[in-house]
Description:
Elements lengths: L1 E4 L14 H9 L3 E5 L10 H6 L3 E3 L2 H7 L2 E6 L3 H6 L5 E5 L7 H9 L3 E4 L11 H22 L20 E5 L3 H12 L3 E6 L2 H10 L5 E5 L2 H8 L4 E4 L14 H4 L7 E4 L20 E4 L2 E4 L9 H22 L1 H7 L1 H5 L1 E4 L2 E2 L3 H5 L7
Parallel strand pairs: 1-2, 1-4, 2-3, 4-5, 5-6, 7-8, 7-10, 8-9, 10-11, 11-13
Antiparallel strand pairs: 6-14, 12-13, 14-15
Helix pairs in contact: 6-7, 6-11, 7-8, 11-12
Amino acid sequence: MKIGIPREVREGEARVGMTPAGVRELVAMGHQVFVEHAAGERSGFADQAYIDAGADLVYSPQEVYWRAEMIVKVVRPTAAEFDLLQDGATLVGFLQLASIRQHKIETLLRKRVTAIALESIATDNGDLPVIHAMSQIGGRMMPGLAARYLEIEGGGNGVLLAGVPGVPPAEVIIIGAGVFGQVAARAFTRIGASVYVLDRQVRQLLATERRCEPGRVSTMMAHPENIAKVLRFADVVVTAASNAGQRAPMLIDDALLRTMRPGSVIMDVSINNGGCVASSRPTSHADPVFRYAGITHYCVPNIPAAVARTATHALANITWPFIEHIVSRGVDLAIAENQAVARGVWAHRGELVQFAGAADQEPIAWD
């Protein structure tokens, strides 16, 4: 199979779809790999490393897309990249198709592209291995980011996350106790913040308590009344709620937002799927925050890209078994044989496979 690794062109995206080690494995299996010049540069992987691994280095995105049968990316293609996709190609990456513009859906169907969304790959027990790998990184980054934007110079209210003797710590609210929420809760509690975690599933709250040190986190059911209650005293709110393959639930409307204390921080990490806050809009690593109603909003969709080398290694480690199966068996057989891969397929041979998001819900269409 011919596999293409393009350079990511979205603002702030420094990761790359495959490491030189992965390329070496593919070449050893008899496949041909095209890597765009400087694709791995921002992740610390030089062109020469890919050449030494056996890749063919190419110097334009057109060469990658036109010569490859399968494109392995990190994030969803831009409009220009969608136009470069070849008929019958396979596209693998974080596609976030629940927030895609309609004309891009039409492009996938017209070109009979097989679109495999890494965020939708799921094991038989419901685990989302690729999402969880990135959630481990993003969750660990939350306290550092929150601390920065709580500082006066960061536009915050000047509260220290950990507090000091005689002065209580910051009040941190996490809505959504999936892997991201659990990891973030552990990270915040370990530095001494006062942490409340809300979710609609008791088992997720139990898992959060087990992950954190005993007595360091308070858990609550994510009923509207409880959300309204905690917002009034929050210094930091992390919204990490999601519905697999669908738009993120809208949890904080404008009226609720205005009950928050001036200078507090909202970190809407569900922004890839539309966000949980009515005022949210995507930001970037270069310009990560904006203020609305006196509240700092952090809405960067690709948080792990800030630590691109670590994130690329983690992504490569977790996606390799799926990539290997696809290139070894071909996309049709891989989908038929591997249910985890099949659950990631959103479009195949001109048909929508599991498109509850963009087809049936209100469009978000961030790009």
